[in-house]
Amino acid sequence: MFNIVKKIFGSKNERYLKSLRPLVERINSLEEEISSLSDEQLQSRVQAWKEEAAAGASLDDLLPHVFAVVREASHRVLGMRHFDVQLIGGIVLHQGRIAEMKTGEGKTVVATLPVVLNALTGRGVHIVTVNDYLARRDAEWMGRLYNFLGLDVGVVVHGMSDEDRRQAYAADITYGTNNEFGFDYLRDHMKFYAYQLVQRDLQFAIVDEVDCILIDEARTPLIISGPADISVDLYARMNSMVPKLKKDEHFNIDEKAKTVTLTEEGVHRVENILGLENLYDPENITYQHHVLQALKAHHLFGRDSEYIVKDGQVIIVDEFTGRLMPGRRFGDGLHQALEAKEGVKVEAENQTLASITFQNYFRLYDKLAGMTGTADTEAVEFKEIYNLDVSVIPTHKPMIREDLPDVVYKTQQEKFNAIADDLLELHSRGQPVLVGTTSIEKSEHLSKLLNKREVPHEVLNAKHHEREAEIVARAGEMGRVTLATNMAGRGTDIVLGEGVRELGGLHILGTERHESRRIDNQLRGRAGRQGDPGSSRFYLALDDSLLRLFGSERITGMMDKLGMEDGQPIENNMISRAIENAQTKVEAHNFNIRKQLLDFDDVMNQQRTVIYTQRRELMHAEKLEDYVLDMIQDVLDDVYSPVGESTPDSLEDEEERSMLMGRLEEIFNIKRLLPEVESPEKEKTLNAVHAHLEQLKADAGDQYEEVLRFFLLESLDRNWKEHLLQMDHLKQGIGLRGYGQRDPKREYKREGYELFEELLFRIKENVVRALCRLRIRKKEEVEGFRHKEQEDLRYGAPQKGEEKKEAKKEPQRRAEPKVGRNDPCTCGSGKKYKKCCG
């Protein structure tokens, strides 16, 4: 029934595209009028629209004329005129959707249409790419068009100064990578003054390769870290233990979930080696955690697969793009475990200072859109997580690429020998081949096999990426064989060389199926661009990771029925379908991982939103005294809650009275503010604190508000950092609540809320404590102290007979209360005096 309805009325996507046709016809009807305008007239129209948009004109009303002008300007400046299907793509992006467009359909040019339209608001448009090379390339290439229309372009890449970033973000259009945009957002929320901020409000972003950024990379949150108090010797100690533990006897590995668990025998073995009585004692939780991380480093993470070692450093290889990720580190001590495993310098483990997931960062934009060649398989996730609909845009010319059935072998060795033999044959007849591998290790293994057969070839992986653009651009020339990890395929078109079309175009050869169908489709999409001929085929083995871990027994059963002999491949559409089903299972599994990460981060996101909103207010507010007075009142109400408006003496319990007076001294420095009163009531304390603030205001003069701003932000940042550490610890152990029949997510939300409530009060308490101990010295006093110190240095210690005299003078000169080494420091840091200013 569903298929019948679909045939009569068309699919949802077809109906949506049909609704855009009148808009495309309207744009086309303006072409003759627009093409008759001079360059200056085109530019003046854009400036006029900017003024209209600023006055509140609807962008939807301006769309037909703006798109017509951009198409004409593109034709004049770039020599490229937008096709009708590209106009449709531009409308889809403007409407805040994802446009799925096949490789070679000109996504970069499509983006210029909605970019110019939305840049008219003056609030900035961000174009997000997967690497710095593409950001620079597109900013320079498309920048010619934008500059022609009177719009300025900025680009944000790694290594730029804050001033350069600020200028880039102030431009009408800003290119950059997802990492740079996300980290700039976090860094901005760690700055003290409004003039230091680099980003503006987040209005509209178009994400290129949207599936890579919003799906694949969404499992790894962005984290800014600082050093934590864990000795690096611990990692070496754990690393030396790994050879003493045997797989299946002392620990079990789950390759699907990428987890390691100790057996009961393994727990006893670890306890004996470390000399512990109980590994699961809360005091020993650090050992338990790092033993498991060391085992993961040795048994689940491989050199030249998940990471490489270069210049004495362990550098992550991106699972989905095959690119190196310098500066990024695995969390929870795993990176340190890998460094210990590889015998390089172990860097200190870091503590989270600020973090956000890509999901929650990109949901901050008022409007979000994306482009990719492969999004439809993840349409449900895009809708559920980002509220983004996927629209499949038809190709300008029919797709004629031939996707051949998979070929399946029994073992890796048989498969790679067959691949090398087939590559020799393809090369000898002149057909260019792009070979997709899943790791650096496998690309280098295949390279050795081709060298034995004397097949000339290029290798493109994270170790040899400097010539990426050149290698990929020439991959369509006659006789070329290019071995590449997943990195070859993003952003650079493979143009067919002379005579290649007659040979069947570019052939894509996959050495195994990836966990995600999208990655396979991206590889296939390198061939058959713009109506070119091409073909693709995947070579598989029964011991490939995907088939071994996720392939059902059904596939093995099929093999047995079909009768496989050594070296004999099986080519069968039923096998291909069964493999796709295995991929669907993995995609669902990975979606659950991303969903769980988001569920936990949503709790943090609510807290982050409150803290960051409050932080922005404090940075921009001109008058902060009201904030401080409210804090003083809240803290005072809490301290006096046992007695209300009475004095501490009204408490009958001596211990309670002592605790109350202790809090008054600890927070309000009461003995100094009210030295003559032994047991002050609430109003007297409040008046004393207000009088102290008035004195600070008089002493600080014009700088009073900045003094308040400093203590407010310093307390907020320090306590937020400690709160993040507490939340990390809570998340690490929350899964165990499931054994007690309690929902870990609900428990995390409940306990996280309680910790957050404590955080908000602790911030207030710290601000009040610091301000009540603050004294501002006049410049002349400071100069006098400096002069005295210089005299002491010049003339040395006082002569005999003067010592007692000087000793008596010193307390008067300092005029500060005596502080015990274990008392809170007078600077207001919250630390003990001996660990701070002492």
TrEMBL record:
Function, as annotated: Part of the Sec protein translocase complex. Interacts with the SecYEG preprotein conducting channel. Has a central role in coupling the hydrolysis of ATP to the transfer of proteins into and across the cell membrane, serving as an ATP-driven molecular motor driving the stepwise translocation of polypeptide chains across the membrane.
Subcellular localization, as worded in the UniProt entry? Cell membrane; Cytoplasm
EC?
A: 7.4.2.8
The family line of this record is: Belongs to the SecA family.
Q: What is this protein called?
A: Protein translocase subunit SecA
What cofactor does this protein call for? Zn(2+)
| Molecular function terms, GO-annotated | ATP binding; metal ion binding; protein-exporting ATPase activity
Alphabetic keyword roster = ATP-binding, Cell membrane, Cytoplasm, Membrane, Metal-binding, Nucleotide-binding, Protein transport, Translocase, Translocation, Transport, Zinc
What is its quaternary makeup?
Monomer and homodimer. Part of the essential Sec protein translocation apparatus which comprises SecA, SecYEG and auxiliary proteins SecDF. Other proteins may also be involved.
Q: Does the keyword Cell membrane apply?
A: yes
Organism encoding this protein: Desulfonatronospira thiodismutans ASO3-1
Q: How does the protein's chain sit in the membrane according to the entry?
A: Peripheral membrane protein
Please state every residue range assigned to the domain named Helicase ATP-binding. Answer: 88-246
